Fold this sequence. Notes:
Alpha-Beta Plaits, alpha+beta, 5-stranded antiparallel sheet, elongated, 8 strands, disordered N terminus, 2 domains
Amino acid sequence: MSRLLTGALTLVLGFAATVQIRETRDPEGLTGATQEDLVEILDSQKSEEDSLRQQIAEAQQAVDTLGRSGADTGRALTEVQQQAAAIALLNGTAPASGPGVRVAIADPQGTVPPSMLLSAIEELRGAGAEAIQVNGVRVVASSYVIGSPGDVEVDGNMLSTPYELLAIGPTEDLMAALTASGSLVSDVARSGGSAQVDGLERVEVSAVVGG
């Protein structure tokens, strides 16, 4: 059992190191970003980074509690494994599946700006999305969206239209966030494109960071 616990703790610490590396790196492609792009990138990262730090802190607390009180090893192992799984989900290092939404954004005239895609990601996060991918690119705390209408880049990957976002989370909340008046669907329409949001019982987010 102690070997299993050690393995789980190593996994948690590995995720923590990955988060720190990605938070401090200078992503390729940001050199040409405008000030507005950079502000949007920083704003979009904050909430998920805070969540990652909280998950890491809770995992470390479980380890500390075990060391101080001699708590039941099996229970401690379960807690650490749960924290490791949650970190992997947020950190984008593991695939995920569950109920959620599929968002299809058509931009036949090349008039939908990158900020619309970023807004969609932020609205999904705000509504409780646990995992998101865009055109096969996993979106995590360090992800960035830059470019110009018809020329959108996510984490160094150039995207082609139509854009497809897959998100796992509370389906009704995710749909409401994207379809309410003044939200993604209406904004995309005003920009000359169209957006369709479908609630699904099962969504597969298969893209992983570094995969």
